[in-house]
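Hello everyone,

My group is preparing for a crystallization screen and wants a predicted model to guide construct design. The compound we'll soak is S-adenosylmethionine. Before spending weeks at the bench, it would help to have a computed complex in hand. I've included the protein sequence and the ligand's SMILES below. Output in C-alpha cell form would be ideal because that's what our pipeline reads.
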Amino acid sequence: MVDTRLYSNLQFLQKFNRFALNNLLVMNNQINIFQEKLNSCFLNLELIKLILSNKRIVGSDLKSIIITAVKLKAGMRWSFVYRHQTKDITKNFETVEAISLINAALENDFLNADLFTTNETIQITHNSKGEVKLKTTPANQIIVPSFSHDKVKNRLIALENNIYLRELGVVNSNWQLKKEMADKYVQINKYIELLEPEIRELPEKENLDIVDMGSGKGYLTFALYDYLTNKLNFKANITGIEFRQDMVDLSNQIAKNAGFENLKFEQGTIEKSNLKKVDILIALHACDTATDEAIFKGISSNASLIVCAPCCHKQIRKEMSITSKLCAITKHGILEERTAETITDGLRALIMEAFGYKTKVFEFISGEHTPKNVMIIGRKMTAPVDKEKILNEISKIKLMFGIKTHQLEVLLNI
Ligand SMILES: C[S@@+](CC[C@H](N)C(=O)[O-])C[C@H]1O[C@@H](n2cnc3c(N)ncnc32)[C@H](O)[C@@H]1O
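Reply:
Good plan to model first. Here are the C-alpha cells for the complex, ready for your pipeline.
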C-alpha cells in the first residue's frame, strides 16, 4: 500500500528540486552571459569602463574597483584602480590575468558589476539571497575607449571623449581644449580638487542629494556629477536651479546626451526654491544677495555641506558707513570695495558658525583666472555652539563698519 503522506512529500521534494535546479541554471546562465560579454569586450578592446562595487563583506576597506584600458610602452594593459576608504591603488594587468581577477573579485568581494562597452551597458547584481540579475541596455554615451596612459594624469576632469565639455564648447571636436576656455577648465578642475576631500568626509550615505543654486550653463555642475558618479563611484542626484529657461533647456539636453541620468536642471529662483532633502548646497558666483538666499536655504534645510563662491557684494557696500579712522583707507574706492567684500563674506561665515557650521574661507582659484575667487565652505557640526557669543561678535563688527543689516541675518530672522 502506498503511504500517501510520504508520496506527497516526495512530490513536493521533486518539485522543489526542479525549482532550485531551474534557478541555478538561470543564475549560471546569467553569469555565463556576463562572462562572455566581459571576455568579448576585453578581447575586442571595446571596454570603456568596468566598475565592481557593493562589497560583499561589510567591514571591507576596499570600496570598489574601476577597470579601464591603458596603453603602456610594454603594450596594452588593463588598469585596475582599487578604491579604498582613504586611498586609491592602481595596478596594471595583462588580459588573461585581468579577467581572472575580475571573476574572483565578483565571486568573493563584490555583488555588482557595471560593464560599459562601446555598444552596451551590462549590469550584473547579486542579492543577499544569492539571486543574480543581468540587465543589458544600449550604450547611452557615444564614446570611444581611450587607451592613452595618463595624458590626463593630473587632470581630474579629462578632456578626451568628454561629451559635456564638447557641448559646452570647452573642447573642440578633436577633444582639444579651446584656448579661450583654458581658464574655465582650470576652474573646473580646481573646483573638483577642492570639493573631493570635503565630500569624502561626509557621513557615508547611499545617495547624495545635491542642489546647485544659480547653475548657469552648468560647467561646474556637470563636472561634479561626472566626477562623483564616474570617478568616485558615488550615487548622486544633482539638481541645478537656474533662473534662465534657455540655460535650463540647454543643460538638460547636454545631461541627456552625456547619459547623466540623475542630473537635472529646473527653472526657478533661489528664493522660491523648495528644498526638502539636501546634503550639499552649492552656490557659485550667484550675484550679490543671491548668495545669502542660497546660504539661507542651505541652513534651513540643514545641509551637511554648504559651498559658495560669492560674486559681487553690493548690499554691504551700500550699507557701510565708516566714521572711524578706517576712513583714511576706505576713501580709496578700490579699498572700500575690497573691505565690503571682506566684511560681507566674513559675516556670512560667522553667521553660518552661529548656526552650527564649521567654516573655511579661502582662495578658490588664483585671481589671474577670475576676480571672483573666494570660496566659503561650511560643514554642519553636531557639537553645540555658543550662538549668543557669535551673534555678539557680529553686532560689534557691524557697528565698526556702520552696517545696520546683513541680508543673511534678515533672512534668518536674527
Ligand atoms: C555668474 S552665473 C554663475 C553660473 C555657475 N554657478 C558658475 O559658477 O559657473 C550666475 C547664474 O545664476 C543665475 N541666477 C542669478 N540669480 C538667481 C536667482 N535668484 N535664482 C536663480 N538663478 C539665479 C543667473 O541667471 C546666472 O545664470
